[in-house]
Every structure is written in structure tokens, then in C-alpha cells.
Design goal:
The chain is of the alpha/beta class. It has twelve helices and nine strands.
């Protein structure tokens, strides 16, 4: 088959399967399986694919048509301009989470220690360490398989970080200048209503935030003062309707509490400074 025929096949198959971005996904998978850039495609659309390229592309299209996330098929996702390894053991990094990193970066100086709770792929911690030389950091997660992905990303980005298996602060030692987390925050009953790609394929333990979605915020906010140095700060990603509730939880131990909105105008990040 030619690359044009392959692309037409991919688009038609994904559209029939109800994939929302069927045209883009067909392109991305053609680039991935066929080593074909868009410029080379438009120059030579009638170029024939090898048998291996055709076989791999068809297999990927069939998998995507079952709503397996595109990023799990290609094994990568861009975050903060960096390429991260991802698989079914970690949540796929989102653009919204970049706002958490962008908010924290100006508040991080060389010599500081950073703690990233529920680190998953390590995208939050590793992005900060890559972009802020002279900073050290630890990432924790309850999933050892997720930590394995984080360590792969650490090697890929060539940064020094420590990762440890821990239920939030359980295995954490010492004090930190900044604590960040994108914890599970979706109410348990809502998870089954999410789009198939999320509901059926992303790790549930990275999604389910208890009955009201605030379980992990309560635990993190209550324990954080014991792990923060004086003038330490806590940064949290929140669901679009949770910032007010999370802010109320923070008021006991934190001041200068601020909320940052995402590109859609929804509350997305909340942060504050440890009270003296």
C-alpha cells in the first residue's frame, strides 16, 4: 500500500470507531510506524510503505480503535517541552499540569529541596530539575511500576533525582523547601463516567480521590507542615471545581494562598506559604 492509502485507512477506521481526533491520531501513528514526516508525505504521498510498516500501522490503528490512548501506543508524551516515557502504569501528563510546574518555577531557587508526591511518570519533578539547575528533589509514589517509569525518564533526561515507594509521606525523611503534588482528585463515583481512554486504560489509583475527591488533599495538607522548612511552600493541582474547598483546608497552616486558572479559565493550581 502507499502511504496515502495507509493514511486513508487509518482515518476511516478511527472515525468509524468514534475516536474524537481520528484524523490527527491517524497522522501521528503514520509518523510513528512509518517514519514518515508530514513534509515527506506531501512530497511523495504515493510512495509505497514496506510490509513491516504497513503491518505495524494496521496493528496500531486497530489498537487505537479500541480507545487505547495514543500515548500508550507511541510510548511517549511531551511535557514542558521535554519527551517523557509513558505506559499503562502512569497517568499521561496533561497540559493542565504544566501550569503547576510553571507556577512553581519562579518560586524555586538553586540549593532548594523539592518533594513531588504522587510522582507517576516523574514529569513534574524532572521538569523542574531539568529547568532549574542546582535544585535537588525526591519523588514518591505508591506504585513501584510507576516509579520504574519515572526512573526511565530520569535517565532519558539525564538529571539526578531520588525516587522512593511511599504512601504519600510515609517513607519521606527530612524537610523540603517546596512540596508539589498532582494527587488523585476525581470523586470515585465520577471515574466511571470519564471518556473511555481515561476510564478503561489509565491507572485507577492515579484517578480516584475518594468519595468527594478531596481525600488526598486532606492528608497532604495536614502532613505538609511537618516536612516543610521555614517559609516553605505547597503547590497543588486541583480539579476545576475544587480550589475553594482545597483552599479552606490550607487556611489553618498556610497563608498567601493563591489560585491559578488554566487555559480554559478554570481554577487549576492552588499554592500557599507555610505560616510562621
Amino acid at each position: 500500500m502507499t502511504f496515502k492509502e495507509l493514511l486513508d485507512y487509518g482515518k476511516e477506521t478511527l472515525k468509524k470507531a468514534g475516536i474524537s481526533e481520528w484524523d490527527l491520531d491517524a497522522w501521528y501513528l503514520l509518523e510513528y510506524a512509518g517514519g514518515c514526516t508530514r513534509s515527506s508525505y506531501f512530497l511523495h504521498p504515493e510512495r509505497r510503505a514496506t510490509e513491516l510498516q504497513e503491518e505495524q500501522y494496521r496493528e496500531l490503528i486497530q489498537k487505537r480503535s479500541t480507545h487505547i490512548p495514543l500515548q500508550y501506543l507511541t510510548g511517549s508524551q511531551e511535557f514542558m517541552g521535554l519527551s517523557f516515557c509513558v505506559n499503562e502504569h502512569v497517568l499521561i501528563p496533561r497540559q493542565d499540569t504544566e501550569i503547576l510546574v510553571e507556577t512553581a518555577l519562579p518560586c524555586i531557587q538553586p540549593g532548594m529541596r523539592i518533594l513531588d508526591l504522587c510522582t507517576g511518570s516523574g514529569c513534574i519533578l524532572l521538569s523542574i530539575l531539568k529547568l532549574k539547575p542546582g535544585v535537588t528533589g525526591t519523588g514518591t509514589d505508591l506504585s513501584e511500576k510507576a516509579l520504574g517509569v519515572a526512573r526511565i525518564n530520569q535517565e532519558r533526561l539525564n538529571v539526578q533525582a531520588r525516587f522512593c515507594r511511599s504512601d504519600l509521606f510515609a517513607q519521606v525523611e527530612g524537610k523540603y523547601d517546596r512540596i508539589l503534588s498532582n494527587p488523585p482528585y476525581i470523586p470515585d463515583a465520577v471515574v466511571d463516567t470519564l471518556m473511555e481512554e481515561v476510564r478503561d486504560y489509565e491507572p485507577r489509583m492515579a484517578l480516584c480521590g475518594g468519595e468527594d475527591g478531596l481525600r488526598y488533599y486532606r492528608e497532604i495538607i495536614e502532613a505538609s507542615p511537618g516536612f516543610l522548612r521555614p517559609a516553605g511552600m505547597l503547590f497543588l493541582e486541583t480539579g476545576y471545581d475544587q480550589a475553594e474547598a482545597v483552599g479552606a483546608l490550607m487556611e489553618r497552616s498556610f497563608d498567601k494562598i493563591s489560585v491559578v486558572k488554566d487555559l480554559s479559565g478554570h481554577d487549576r493550581v492552588i499554592y500557599g506559604s507555610l505560616k510562621p
